[in-house]
Amino acid sequence: METYSLIIKLNSTPHMEEKSSRDEASLFDAAFRVPGNTHLQLNMHAWCDKAVEYLDHAISRTQNDLRSHVQRVYLYIDKKDADTVYGALVDLFIILKESGRPLRERMLEASRTVLGEKRYRFLVQHLDSGIRATDAVPPSRTSLLSKGLSGTNQLVMKQNSREISQQDPLEVAHDHLEYGQIDEARKVLEMAILREPHRPELHQDLLEIYRSTNAREPFLAMRRRLNADNSPLADTWQKLALAFAEES
Question: Measuring CA to CA, which residue among 88, 101, 180, 65 is closest to residue 141?
């Protein structure tokens, strides 16, 4: 039987003894840690949703955590939800790329009865090549790593441009930073500031990227384009300019 290290916050409620075991997990907020646990199939029972939430977070933070990927696939198989199983498999294929074929094949076969024939056939076609995050794939609401394109057997579609344009550039930049895509986050913020120079939070995040990555040349180029002396954070732009000047 697996052992788990938990940080548990009890949600106080009267008559707790009257709760069934099915409702037991709802009494707590828990952060799961499974240190050194070699089991790939986690027997979580009522804690399944909390464990999945933890694994999603772990994979978002450390994409190459292969054990968490496999544990996540098995937990979704237990839930018998085709879309979640498919999304977890897509993420596993993205991480492994063209390597680890025996593992991808084993996980795909374990998922076949839940997955559905169409999605199963799609993943079989990628057993040798793997999947890249930017590849066109049948869409899934649970894939954490697939980006940019969704596909069907007949059509490959880019995300609706109106939907993209309505997304806050600050959120887009933070998504890039979450995956370590610093240059992409910087470019998003630069374009956003040129369109909306009055937003101080955009300036703040961009200046922090320049400072933390020592990006002197992009900083100087942006400062010339922007006329930063008239920006909401003019003093901060000036301070960073002085700091870069002292380093040169």
Answer: 88
